Amino acid sequence: MVRDRVRSQARLVAAVGQVLTEAGFKGLGVNAVARRADLDKVLIYRYFGGFDALLEAYARSGDLWWSVDEIVGEHLPGPEQDSLAAWCVLALKRQVAALRQRPVTQQILAWELVEPSPLSRALSELREARTRQLVGRLVERGGGRAHGLLPTLHGLLGAASLYLVLRAHSVGQWHGVDFTTEAGWGRLDGAIAALVHAALGEPQATPSRR
Fold it and tell me: Per DSSP, which regions of the chain are E strands?
């Protein structure tokens, strides 16, 4: 009985993501999720207490947001310049890449701007918690030197990058930069590097020639 319940809960949680991917938010509902999971919708209320709670469970259980290790884990190469600014730049670049690879997350973030939901609220809490963890890890990676501007700077540039990722699907151009191309995203990376190094008062290393 317990095993069946766990399996059914997992199927319902997975079905939320599948419906979002296939039909978007307009197609997301109790009946659609139950049908996709091939289960009676009564189980949503029995196991989760309601549809909102199921959405919250999906936000917590899935790969909706990057983990700190995905951005600056020990298994990943560090920046050429081992400094707080260089680590911050690298983290912001990887955050953009991670978000671009998560179309369902992009849908939730776009929906959040129009109509907050239990799913978007759960994602927001996850996002804030992991961002705080990441900033702390950046300080460690950068030699333990904290900078008062770092949390705000990282937050502002992260928010700007997030907006550009969401906007690229409908209108690819922004201030003359084409974000439908990798060259456009490369220009964003360059701008982030210049801003971070200037704000934190650290000279930017000259790219090595290889």
Answer: 173-174, 177-178
DSSP 8-class letter at 25: G
Q: State pLDDT tens for residues 68-109.
A: 999 999 999 999 888 999 999 999 999 999 999 998 898 888
**Is residue 177 helix, strand or coil?**
strand
Dihedral through CA 16, CA 19, CA 25, CA 29, nearest 10? Answer: -70
Helix (H, G, I), strand (E, B) or coil at 77: coil
Q: How far is CA 3 from the centre of its chain?
A: 32
φ and ψ at residue 170, rounded to 5 degrees: -105, -45
Q: CATH for 2-61?
A: 1.10.10.60
* Mean pLDDT value of segment 122-134: 91
Q: Are 88 and 137 in contact (CB under 8 A)?
A: no
CATH number of 68-200: 1.10.357
Q: What are the Cα distances from residue 8, in Å, to 50, 54, 60, 91, 137?
A: 15, 12, 17, 37, 37
Cα separation of 168 and 115, whole Å?
A: 21
User: At residue 121, what is the residue type?
Assistant: R
